[in-house]
Each structure stands twice: as structure tokens, then as C-alpha cells.
Fold this protein.
Amino acid sequence: MVEKIIDKVKICIQCGTCSSSCPLNFAMDIPVRKLIALLKAGYSKQVLNSRTFWLCLSCYFCKVRCPKKIDLPEVMYNLHEVCLKQNILPENKITLQVYRAFIKVVNLFGRNFEPLMFFLSLYKSPKKLLKFLNLGIFFLKTKNIPLLPSKIKDSRSLKNLLKEADLIEI
Amino acid sequence: MKYTYYPGCSVKSTEIGYENSLKACSEVLEIELNELDDWNCCGATIFPKLNRKAYLLLSVRNLALAENYGKDIVTVCNGCLTALSKTNFYLQQNRDAFEKINRVLEKLGLNYQGKIKVRHFLEILIKDIGQKKIEEKIKKRIRGVRVAPYYGCQYSRPFGPEHPENPHYLENLLILLGAEVVDASFKTNCCGGILTIAEDNSHKLIKSILEDAKRLKADFIVTICPLCEINLQLFQKKIGIFIPVVYFTQILGYCLGIEISKLGKEIYSFKGLLK
């Protein structure tokens, strides 16, 4: 799996455009350029244990600016999957909690239901949950909070279909 | 003009005001939006991170459903726009994957041929409807207010209809409506996306956007994506800079003479600015 990712970044010329374009570069322990260099040099353990790709915002600045047209967001995404397969968890546990909450809700209803997704994301971190509720009071004046989720007609068959996703060889 | 409308999850729940204003504008501009029946979540930016193949299935199901309608998909969410068009692009590049996914999709009785385009409502307004027609329908203009346009990332990147870092359709529209548009260099910067829940570092991105808007003396920010709107509004209390954020369809609707009560609650923050 890591080999496939290395294949994608082989052509990197180490210009650093990705690092300097990344809005969250300041929060990363290993800048993107260095992460790619480590990948190519075979230091996959350091790469998988870094927090860099867990901070990917999917803003695509790096992708549209890369002179070698490397699909860097895709590389960051794939690193998430490798980590989960090898059971390497991110330093910030809430990130994964949010992602899993989202996936759980979509599996249930076929669509996202924000109140439930939000609760599942943060129920393990009550301090953060309270902070958000405090911000929310101001915010909700202009919003409409749905009480019931909107669902697709046959959410169970979609859920079963998604289970099969892993078996597709692509 | 007829289109297949893909709403996306947030537009159907907290951001219902966005959809209401979209529908009201479409009616006035004679745009027929047929909502895609039984649509599902597009996968956003989360499914491709944790389960890439499930994300492809989710998107292809929507595209396959839309194919029966025979019209382009229109959406007002940048996240949905990118998720769906990214899948389209991927399938065109990988015929083998295309076949394999279709084989799985057959279990739902669906098949995708790859004929559907995915577009943002803003692009439809400028390209298909045209500024001339919009101008004919305008009832009032919003003179004397300074507006900061904000596209967010995924409208123009990676497969947008315009320059990836310097789009201008939103400015075109706002100038048409009589607003004074400020030169917002942050217009395609990132709002933090879904990471704002987990990662406090991402709040700095919102802060820099709000600070810049304030420095440019913008009276309000106009956005075209639900997640951008949520992020830019939700964290104002924490950051301590208060600027109204409204959707482009709400401003457009106001200028088209649509009753304010039909345009969603966000518009009230904007109404206060009009003398």
C-alpha cells in the first residue's frame, strides 16, 4: 500500500511549493515537502507517525500549484487509510472521532444528520462540546435545527453496498 | 433552462435558508430545478480519507441516479461539487475501475455511463442565464455597501469552472447588483472545512479571513458554500470580529425583489445595513 503511494510521488522535484502553499503548514511537525522526501527515502514509519496528513484540509492549493502535477491531497488521503489498516492513530484523537462520526451517520441514514454527527464527534470530549455549545447559541439565531434526520429510501441496502466497497480491487 | 438539483446534506438541514433563497431566485429567473430523488451524501472530504472506495460508490450512486434525468447536476455546495466532479474525472481516467464500480452498483439496479456534468449554481447564473437576463429582472440595487466575495477552496479547485485561484463570477454578479466589491485576496482561501471541529489551529484561518475583511472595511461577506458560511459565522464570537455572512442567492433574491421572509434567516444580518 505504501509502495503505491511512493509511486505517485516519485517524480517530486522537492521544490517546496506544497509546503509554502499549505495553510496549515505552521501546525505540522513535518512539512509536506519533507514528508515526500522521507517517503521516497523509505522512512515510512516516521511518515505514518507524523501529524502532517491528518491536518489536510482538502483545499487543493498544493495540487493546483505543483509543477509536477502530483495529486498531493490524494497522497494525504491514502496515508490516512494506511494508518488505519496498521492501527496507527493520530495524535489529535478528536479528528478521527469526527471522521468516524460522520461515516457512522451516513451509514445509518445515507445522508449526514448534523446534530447527531456533532454529538458523536464530541461526546468523548465534554470540554470541547461545551465550548461549541457556547459558540452555537449566538450562531443558531440565524439557523434552523432539524429534529429528525432526512433519510434515503433504502438506507440498509446502501449500507450493505458500502460494506462491499473493500472488496473492489481498484 | 432545466437542471437536476443536488442539494447536499447541510442545505437540507441547518442551511435551509440557502435552499429557500436558491429556489426563490430560480423561479424568478425561470430556471427549472428538478431535485434528484433519493440522493445520498456525496462523501464530502471525509469518506475519501478513511474509505476511498466507499466514497466512489456514494458519488457514483448519485451520478447514476442523475443520469436518468438527462440533465447536468446543479449544486450550491462546494464540497458536493468537488466530490461529485472528482469521481467523474477519476472514472474517465480509469476505465477498469469504472467497470468494476458499475458491477457493484448493479446490485442497486443502477448503471452509470459517465455522461453527467456537475456544476455550481453560480456558474449557471453567469454562463447559462447571462448577466443581461439577470439585469432585466433586477428590481433594486444595493448601493453604498462594501462587499467581500468569498468563494472558499472547492469551487475553483481542483476542477472548477474558473481560474483555480482567481475566479471572478461572484464579483461580476455583485457588481451587477450595485455593490461595491472589495479586492479580497482571501477569496479562495480555506475556511478550515470540517477540521474546525477537531483542530483549533484551523481557527487561525478563519481569523485571518475575518481580519482581512475588516481591514478592507467590508460591510459583509458573501459566500457560496454552506460549510464556509457556518465556519465564518460560528467562530466570530471566539475571534471577536463580527461581520455578517450571507449567501449570494440571498443578496440576489433581495435585488430581484423577492420577499425577505422567503430568503432565509441569514438575510436579516444584511438587512440592517441597508438604509
